[in-house]
């Protein structure tokens, strides 16, 4: 008999990693300067510069939407266009945040598969954009979601293909790394290989979905493109006065490869489910499972039955649903889910 | 001999109250719905409705700037004016955030003393505003900082005087309660008496400066004036996906009168300093000390000497500086500060 | 031998109708109140209320982009979505103006043919929009271009189909009538039948392209949806102090059916070209010619030859170009164009 | 017995100069490229470069509010501050347009007399602004109204004093020249001496109030500070497609010193009134009359009597009113006004 709740709604439904909370406890000593003037925050740039093998700037921010919108607003103009996948979070789920913070900056979908941007479609979009014509919004940035909103991962060479086109045309490359650690785990490459070495100019560095509490971060590889970002962040109400408590989380997150271990847990869970169900008749995976998300097609009745049995997930259509594994998804949850899918999959 | 650092820069330099961190630990159990759909967050409205003796809506937000700017943007239009004291935080220290989130909404200072708005000046400003004329921005809201940015406190009747004028003219009353607990402690009245019962429509509820970590909140008493606030917050990237960790802090903050006890500690510290130094020749307090801030005038050389001796504070002019006490300011720090002021005050 | 310039670039390349300039001369008498307080401007509402068979408000504005963006900003919120055709002018050619004036308001393309919105795609877009979810921008308005940006015309019943869906879902219906007179001429219906009686809430009333100089207008049928429009316009710098000179143009434009006669001239010219060339081998019309624009497919070499012979038009692709007829396009120009197309059409 | 209407409300109540309308008639020949690609518009830059004795860029715009707000938005950032006189039009009468177009850009009054900025107060404001601190909006531009909103005129050396401070601190100098011709007439200097040679970076070039119809212009002396201005204007709906009709007005306005002759007429009228009434008991001029405006103090009853006798003007307080002379104000109007003021001035 299934539990009341078998949780596969989102990785943001999961717990925080205890290491991050312990870091808060440790940070709560003495008085320090506010707004990032403290010693903990000062470690961020050094720590991340090592991690990314080049000098970087790190700005903790409360949310992924904040990271995306502020990063893009800092590099774009009000009459610019940011290209992205149609499924990109900035296009579907952030309530116009990028256009708002960017003063009108337009989010412009470009076609592709599995939540990725197709490089040819991207190049064509730039060519047809009307560069220099005041009637037309101007190509200014491209947004790559890593892992994508369909659960796939851009390879390093795919990132390079997009960034080469972008830079050749004067565009800035922004990576929405809400699930950046999951992508790294899958690819087995270094953080630098997937970002600065592949042409990424700035990164929304996801923490929340992979064991964080209340903090993500913006990592700037190319400060020349985001000169006013501090003002953007302050003006947006995104610079905490007690910044040490945000910075401590981010430091704990990357210490001792914690982030990669957590991501491996959720990736492994998702792959385990994928391997079991992809061979089942009546079940189809809509996109490759390369991170911690699965997009599953089944008969509507079969999906109804899963819901009735207490499996929690987001339905994305009559015959489509999304499953997300957390860093703390258990073997037991996985086994129960697979059993229930197997039980209901042929219902019509 | 003085310590290297005697901390009086800001209440945001202080530690978090351990109760709030403990609340994070307690909240880190099981999986819950994101974006405020969790059970902890659901307690907020009920708890605060009891606290404020009427139904209210509570929205945790990362910062006080976020609380102020989003509260005002939610009630104003892009062609509106928000009246405030010249010293008000929204006017001096938030890098145009209110105008930004409000699409142009203008922050308009009105004169007064001790960081307060003078009711007569306020009424005159409304009368001269050109209501209904499209050339003129339209009076839409008034912002009261409690305690004020000069360390004073609006009495309940002073709040009522402003809100009566505001409501008679169709304006919304916003209270910036970054130091709301300090004001309550000073006045000895109930939270409701100082807000909804005095005509306040919505409140930036400060937590950070008084023992918080990463969270303040907006409290809405009059939901009719802020119908779209959820969209404003989401679009602003201010709705955490793991909201339970923000809500848990806010609940712990008001549990068992913790917030009032913490405020009493910083208020008492400030008063202790005030009582000692106000009688000293060469030292003058610029405004009544009614919360945890002191604005002190001394000779420039005397101030220089304090700095040289390791006292940390913000200088506001050649002969003016601000001291802020924290909930965790110690008797020892107070004693050392007073001794140093006394030692240097007559330097010329 | 062809002329150096055979003008088919745009209807905005044409002259103003002399009647409109004569109206300026007539308006230049005596002193009057500014910003629309004059007697000429006061005639606008009455005159247009008669024209549209119901009370309307008329606001002259400098440009069609101004009319579209301000009309939509006046009815939408910063977290809203405006649906439109992918080819709609607001989506392709106004440099993010709608998002800018709307504080982030998103322009969201919905598929269809001939520059129209498909009603089924429109309804599906609303259903999938996530109404009430703060993550999602909210459906707030729909934009119909009449005539469309592909030279077709929405029939009255097509307008009704869209507006019925819109109103059933709480959306406002905006018509971009940059070529409204052309559509009326084609349909043979009354202005009211094509707008308010068909569910249109507000209209960008085009003047410039059809004999105007420096003025278009916004016509509001449903003032409840655009309460603050005067402030939007003033704040946008779109209320002339010497408004009489704008209003006089608009009045002259609709006096004695001038606008309909001018539109008939450009429509007739376009149809004459269409009838001649649609039967020619090597020439294909991309969309029905129902107003004064033709979208023509020919071999690239044939198009090159037209350009070489001095025909002026905008190329929209290697084998596609647009021809636009003006109210003052001559029989001679038409004949020469047809002859040149016929001469070159089979070039490969 | 007085006329029904004796017009002294505003210079925007006056007629257009016939020369400008004649220019429209002359421009209405043949077909030309839209959006400023025509030959008439192309003359603007050359003509104004001669007029201002250096290369300049000229952008006709519909209104003075448009000119001011777009000029400032093109040079400022959303977290910037524009300093101006408290009486400046951008501060009092443009419904937040500068903040709106500037994405939050704050209009910050600096004290002074007669509608001018005091250079010392200006320098102090910059010094206290918190340059480089993300909490503070950043000093980015200064706005000088010429003639001022109190009817006075900045001398060339006064302009230089402000611009020297501005440039030393990295600020851009914008002149709101709504009554620029009036100032030139008073000072007897050249257009260049009052602008680029005095440190002005860009100018709102007023036409409307001094014989124009529907057009003012932005003149850019220093293009490096306003690189994206074309996009700002297009996005703002301020680039007419039939630009030739705007450009023709601007060219006619400056041809044969028409603008200076028109300004002399309104200045002379204002001075004639000033000379007569300044000696009268009971009448006081609030500011020097250096252009075409007078700010007059009289007893409330005396002002009431003027109104009752049909004199049209804007009352600015119980005992204060403004008189504005137009280029077409007649000797007869002046004589009647003076007679009426003399008749009523001692009423109490």
How would the blueprint of this fold be written?
The structure is a homotetramer of 348-residue chains.
Chain A: E1 6-7, H1 18-27, H2 39-51, E2 57-61, H3 64-75, E3 80-84, H4 89-92, H5 97-101, E4 106-109, H6 119-127, E5 138-145, H7 156-168, E6 172-177, H8 180-187, H9 191-194, E7 202-205, E8 216-220, H10 229-235, H11 244-254, H12 258-277, E9 284-285, E10 293-297, H13 300-308, E11 311-312, E12 314-317, E13 320-324, H14 331-344
Parallel strand pairs in A: 1-11, 3-4, 3-5, 5-6, 6-7
Antiparallel strand pairs in A: 2-8, 7-8, 9-10, 10-13, 12-13
Helix pairs in contact in A: 1-11, 2-11, 8-12, 12-14
What would you note in describing this structure?
The structure is a homotetramer of 348-residue chains. Chain A is α/β, with parallel strands linked by helices and 348 residues long. Chain A folds into 2 domains: 6-14 and 258-344, Aspartate Aminotransferase, domain 1 (Alpha-Beta Complex), CATH 3.90.1150; 18-255, Aspartate Aminotransferase, domain 2 (3-Layer(aba) Sandwich), CATH 3.40.640. Helix content of chain A is 40%, strand content 16%. Chain A contains 14 helices and 13 strands. Chain A has helices at residues 18-27, 39-51, 64-75, 89-92, 97-101, 119-127, 156-168, 180-187, 191-194, 229-235, 244-254, 258-277, 300-308, 331-344; strands spanning 6-7, 57-61, 80-84, 106-109, 138-145, 172-177, 202-205, 216-220, 284-285, 293-297, 311-312, 314-317, 320-324. Chain A has a 7-stranded mixed β-sheet with strand order 2-8-7-6-5-3-4, with helices on both faces. In chain A, strands 9-10-13-12 form a 4-stranded antiparallel β-sheet, covered by helices on one side. Chain A has a two-stranded parallel ribbon with strand order 1-11. In chain A, helix 12 runs parallel beside helix 14 (331-344). The longest helix of chain A is centred in the last third of the chain and has 20 residues, at 258-277. The first copy, chain A, is globular and about 55 Å long. The mean pLDDT of chain A is 96. At the A-B interface, helix 1, helix 3 and helix 10 of A face helix 1, helix 3 and helix 10 of B.
